[in-house]
Structure formats: structure tokens, C-alpha cells
TrEMBL record:
The organism of origin for this protein: Chelativorans intermedius
Name used for this protein in its record: Beta-ketoacyl-ACP synthase
Enzyme Commission (EC) number: 2.3.1.179
SMART domains xrefs: PKS_KS
PROSITE patterns in UniProt: KS3_1, KS3_2
Keywords: Acyltransferase, Transferase
MF GO annotations: 3-oxoacyl-[acyl-carrier-protein] synthase activity
Length: 426
């Protein structure tokens, strides 16, 4: 079997995957719920929501760390996904021998730390006295939580990854970017394998307030499971969520030499920036268009060789419109016939984790021959002509997938995956 691509680079195989979302823990539980069209979105119980416009989310409440704060939960989510992925790859869980790329939310102290510092400060909470209080307290937990790299450091120590662990935050594209960095490291010959993780446990009251101020969140609280409705005419915003996805990436040559099962092939990645606005996409969709085309070119595939698209599909009026525009521009008249679905209709938007979670689901789609649906698609938008696999899963032969991640701040990352090495669209 040929182990290099058409450009002479090492082919990158996926040999292990892990996932956790509001639907449950592990691939089996998530896949069963996802293909059944079940929603994990529910009323928030973790903190009071009396004065919030949005009172629903796809929070992961079944872990004890969910009550300890965003940093603890993000680590727990990343750890569980990584453990499943490394275990499936058949690698030692304490001696991974490859780099770690972690997509994680920006660091922010939880309120119990903030209030404690304020109480310890001498001058009423100005920033100098808060720094002094933190220094005098000598609180290791507080120090660790204030460092952006702490979660990656703990994961690197636990799994025995090599080199300096990389933590990145490229908004909603973060998970896909982590996979991209792992792919590129293997292609450059810097390593034989890499562990790529996207994790986010930061569904807090503050996050809800901030996204609400941006008019990004839905306020349809009455029936939570119907609130996220990507590509529907009555879509009104995304639903904040938590989760993690992890992939063991490995050169195909390395995977074959040790007899590992190859779950899928990472063929290409494309990344382009959008400098139009801090949150809004450029109206002509040109950065997203460029990212899709770059991913196809990197994969060595033509536009007619994609079988299925895992949409970014946030359920916001503007993003869904932009994604349709960009894909229609790239795929032309074929676009209305390509199946495209959004798992955010069921799990919500997992932010930093989304690209990694959706990459896992994309590989499962090819392996299982089943396309998850876009649920809550009851009122089609005549301005968005797409085959969204409405409401019910679809059995289909899927050899190639394009997975889109378009983030706030102009981050656009697209991944192209194949079921097997040398695989082309049917």
C-alpha cells in the first residue's frame, strides 16, 4: 500500500478517537444518540439563570468536575476523550511518544477564586492589591488555573507526550486547528504520531451573557431540544455547549508497521483568515470560500470528489447564510445534491472543541455508512437550498468528507478526510 500522498508527503492515518458531549461519554453512546436524532440540549441547572435571556445549553453535567469550574471540567473532558482515543489506538496510556496539540478556551478565573482574592486584598480590589493577595496566598490551584498551558501540561505529563505541549485558541475553529497542526507535524517528518484534542467546559453564566450581548444565542428556552435549528428559516442563534474530541494521528507507514487499525485518513486542511469584523463574517464569504478551496487543494481532490459535508451549521442567521454562500460558490450546481448536516442541532456549539468533535463524527460517518441528520428542520429557508439530511439519519456510502469550522475573529479551518488511503468519491 502506498503510504505517501500525491505530493509525496506521508499520509496521515487516524488510529484512535475519543469523544464526549452532552449526549454522553464515548463514541458508542454519542453515535447511537446522534444517529437517533436525539438532542442533548437541556435547561441549565448548574447555576442560577433567573435573569439570563438564554437558560438552556448542551452542558456536560454528569461529571463531578462540572461543579468545580471551567478549568477543571475542560481538563476532565480532554482527559476522557484522550483516554478513549489512545486506548483505541493500542498505545501505552503513559508513554505516547509524540507531541500534544490541545485546543482549549481562553483562561478565565472562576468566581470562587475571584471572590476569595477580593476578600484577601487590602485596598478594596484594585488590580495591584489583587496581585499582592495572590502572591501572598501562595495558592498553587489559583496559580495553575490562571495559566493558559496548565491543562496541556497535565495531559502531557499523564500521557507521556513528547516536546512542549501546544495549547491554541482560534475560537470556534480551535479543534480543527489542533488536528491541522498534528497533520502538519507528521507531514514534515517531525514525529510519527501526534495527539490532537479539542475540549471546552466553559459554559458559564458569563459566557452566556457575553454571547447574548453579541446577539449570537437563541432565546427559545421553552423547548430546549428544538432550540438549535441550523439552516431552518426560523433559526435564531446557537446553543452554548461543552464537550471534547480527540484523535491519535499517525503516519500511515507507522500505523501499518505496528499493525494498528486505520480508522480513516486525514487528506487535507485549509485555513484562511477573515479581517472583516470581530464576530461577523465577510459578506461575500471569500475567506470561507478560500479555506474550503485550500483544503480541497491540499487533499488533492476536485470539487466533485466530496461525498458529504459536516457543516459548521451553528443555527445563527448570518453564519448559516454565509456557509451556504461559500459552499455554493465552490461546488456550484452540485451543492443542492451533496448531503450536508449539522450535529450542532443536537449537541449545540462546543466552541473550542467543535472542530475535533465533528472530525470524530465525520470519520464515524464514513466507517458506519450512516449520515447523522440535521434535526429541527421543519421550516426550510428558501434562500438556503441544501440537502440537510432533515430530521432522520440516512444510510449512504461515504468515502470522503469535508468538515467546516468557521470561528469568531475570522478563523476559518476546513478538513478533508477519507475512509481509506487512495479513496475517492463514489
Amino acid at each position: 500500500m502506498k503510504t505517501t500522498d500525491s505530493f509525496g508527503r506521508p499520509l496521515v492515518a487516524v488510529t484512535g478517537m475519543g469523544v464526549i458531549t452532552s449526549l454522553g461519554q464515548g463514541k458508542a453512546e454519542n453515535w447511537m444518540a446522534l444517529t437517533s436524532g436525539r438532542s442533548g440540549i437541556h435547561p441549565i441547572t448548574r447555576f442560577p439563570t433567573d435573569h439570563l435571556a438564554t437558560r438552556i445549553a448542551g452542558t456536560v453535567d454528569f461529571l463531578p468536575e462540572s461543579r468545580r469550574g471551567a478549568s477543571a471540567l475542560t481538563f476532565a473532558l480532554a482527559d476522557l476523550a484522550a483516554s478513549e482515543a489512545v486506548g483505541e489506538a493500542g498505545l501505552p496510556k503513559t508513554d505516547f511518544r509524540g507531541p500534544l496539540f490541545l485546543a482549549a478556551p481562553p483562561v478565565e478565573l472562576d468566581w470562587h477564586h475571584r471572590l476569595r482574592l477580593y476578600a484577601q486584598s487590602r485596598r478594596g480590589g484594585d488590580w495591584r492589591s489583587l496581585i499582592e493577595a495572590a502572591r501572598e496566598a501562595g495558592d498553587r490551584e489559583l496559580f495553575d488555573e490562571s495559566q493558559f498551558a496548565t491543562i496541556a501540561d497535565r495531559l502531557a505529563e499523564k500521557y507521556g507526550t513528547r516536546g512542549l505541549p501546544i495549547t491554541l485558541s482560534t475560537a470556534c475553529a480551535s479543534g480543527a486547528t489542533a488536528i491541522q497542526l498534528g497533520m502538519e507535524a507528521i507531514r514534515r517528518g517531525e514525529c510519527e504520531r501526534a495527539l490532537a484534542i479539542g475540549a471546552d467546559g466553559s459554559a458559564t453564566a458569563e459566557a452566556l451573557i457575553r454571547f447574548s450581548l453579541l446577539s449570537a444565542l437563541t432565546t427559545q428556552n421553552d423547548i430546549p431540544e428544538k432550540a438549535s435549528k441550523p439552516f431552518s428559516k426560523d433559526r435564531s442563534g446557537f446553543v452554548l455547549a461543552e464537550g471534547a474530541g480527540a484523535m491519535v494521528l499517525e503516519s500511515l507507514e507507522s500505523a501499518l508497521s505496528r499493525g494498528a487499525e486505520v480508522l480513516g485518513i486525514m487528506l487535507g486542511c485549509g485555513e484562511r483568515a477573515d479581517d472583516f469584523h470581530r464576530t461577523r463574517s465577510k459578506p461575500d464569504g471569500s475567506p470561507a470560500i478560500a479555506a474550503v478551496r485550500a483544503a480541497l487543494a491540499d487533499a488533492g481532490l476536485a470539487e466533485d470528489e466530496i461525498d458529504y459535508i459536516n457543516a459548521h451549521g451553528t443555527s445563527t442567521p448570518e453564519n448559516d447564510k454565509m456557509e451556504h454562500l461559500s459552499l455554493s460558490t465552490v461546488f456550484g450546481e452540485r451543492m443542492p445534491t451533496i448531503p450536508i448536516s449539522s450535529n450542532k442541532s443536537m449537541i449545540g456549539h462546543t466552541l473550542s472543541a467543535a472542530g475535533a468533535v465533528e472530525a470524530v463524527f465525520s470519520i464515524l460517518t464514513m466507517r458506519e455508512g450512516v449520515i447523522p441528520p440535521t434535526i429541527n428542520y421543519e421550516i426550510p429557508d428558501p434562500a438556503i437550498e441544501l440537502d440537510v439530511v432533515p430530521n432522520v439519519k440516512r444510510e449512504a456510502e461515504v468515502a470522503t468528507v469535508l468538515s467546516n469550522s468557521f470561528g469568531f475573529g475570522g478563523q476559518n479551518t476546513c478538513l478533508v478526510m477519507a475512509r481509506e488511503a487512495g479513496q475517492r468519491s463514489q
